[in-house]
Amino acid sequence: MNLLTGEYNNTIDEKGRVSFPTKLRTAINQNVVIVTKGSGRCLWLFTPDEWSVFQTKLMSNASMLKEKSLRVIRQLIAPAQEIEFDKNGRLSIPASLREYAGLSKDCTILGIAKYVEIWDSASYTEYLNSSEEQFRDAAEEFNDINF
User: Fold this and answer.
1) What are the angstrom distances between the C-alpha of 145 and each of 121, 135, 141, 142?
2) Mean pLDDT for the chain overall
């Protein structure tokens, strides 16, 4: 898999299908992705290989006896679904995941190195506008990055 990057604006049709950007589809280089609920009311999409790595790491650090672990597992692992691209390069997002992310028409698709996020466009804009200060604070913690 190549590096997934870029921000794309698209629409979801009345059947819950979204045309996936060609650049991202080419980078994924597979006909299937795993889609699950993400943090911040978006969806996370992984290749099967990246999902396997993510799921294994998550499960190896979780305990079925700890409530916080169960919350994370139930939020991320349980709703995950395998979805195939159709012949037109579209993904049909399941209704339960569309509802979680508030996806109805306009969406923003983000390539984030090893996974992809899909946001309702208005929610993503609101998230960016409301999190600028938190971004600056978080960015200051990356003090080991030098050019």
Assistant:
1) 30, 16, 10, 6
2) 88
Beta strands 43-46; 4-11: pairing state: unpaired
As a whole number of Å, the end-to-end CA separation of the chain is 26
Looking up tokens 């045309």 gives 19
Euclidean distance between CA atoms 106 and 89, whole angstroms = 17
Token pair recorded at residue 59: 């499960």
Contacts of 139 (CB under 8 A, 6+ apart): none
| Residue 41 CB burial class (10 angstroms; 0-12, 13-18, ≥19) | middle
Query: Residue 50 carries which side chain, given as an amino acid letter?
Result: E
pLDDT digits (tens, 9 = 90+) for 69-114: 788 888 888 899 999 999 999 999 999 999 999 998 999 999 998 9
